[in-house]
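Supplementary Note 3. Input sequence used for the single-chain structure prediction.
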Amino acid sequence: MLSLADKLAPEVVKNLIPYQSARRIGGNGHIWLNANELEESELYGESEGYNRYPDFLPQVIEQAYLDYSSHFTPSGNPLSCQSRAVRGADEGIDLLIRTFCEPGKDRIIVCPPTYAMYEFCADAFALKTIKVPLVEGFGLDLDGIKENLPHSKMLFLCSPNNPTGNVIPHSHIIQLLEAAKETTLIVVDEAYIEFAPHTTVAELIASYPNLIVIRTLSKAFGLASARIGFILADRSVMTYLSRLIAPYPIPDPSARIAEKALADSGIAAMRNQTEALVSVRDWFADEVALLPFVEAVYPSATNFVLIRFNTDDCLYRYLLEHGIVTRNQAHEPQLKRCVRISVGTQASMQETLNALKAFKAASPQNAA
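The predicted structure, written as discrete structure tokens, is reproduced below.
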């Protein structure tokens, strides 16, 4: 019986033979002269291994990530899916689109305001993006999405969502998975899942092979520069992704960093760090909400806070003048006068709070 991935994969991908890199072909021997590498390098030293290409599939960290992810499923059971390492979640988005969509023909669905990379990758691949905006309270327009599912290859959801910070209820995702069983792959971006681990939908992959989950080590693990992301998906999906993935997807130095982060000690350190950050986030949100020119501080299950001011603008430029760089969200129709502020150290957030309080003192006419 054909899986949904079999039905959706373009013929060119079905017939594609994965690039046969030297590492993939392999072989047995003690002198390796098959990959046009420098056999020795005086600059870095042979002991570092920088002169050799990395594994074509970084199976050690892929298994380590699958084991880690299995620890916080709602049921506590091991995940029944596969894990694939990519160079950050952004590459995961791009890889999924390149694998299952045909340029100039297919469509994806996004629900703005959300992460802009979904639409960017679609644009770069000449796809049409169907936008079904979030409704009041930043919830999904389920009817609007369902209406477009039969005509779209992929639906991208972000939970917790960037930039709104809220979580999509499991019941809503299950509704969409049921509606899309025969038509559409549903991608749930869980980049911020460590800040709300109980909300993960990864366990649903066992029941819904049309579900794909994207993760990253850039956020809670604090490894943004290492560029390590993961795709969790059913075997039927991975069969096709593996045909298009880069020959050497993860540099060895990054893989070693990821392996250390996914060890028991690394996971424990991440959880302690996350707990401390959440405490600072909640304190900052409570303090900012008391300012008279703040219209709303939206609930956050992430490492950022979305704030709406009742001033003439979102105070992005004001904060920038005080050396505080935030993210202006006012370009989004639903986020007028909104700014997204990442949660840093207690000292950084205190300085940001002090700057906002100074605005109140300096410009009382701007506070409605």
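DSSP finds 13 helices and eleven strands in the chain. The longest strand covers residues 211-216.
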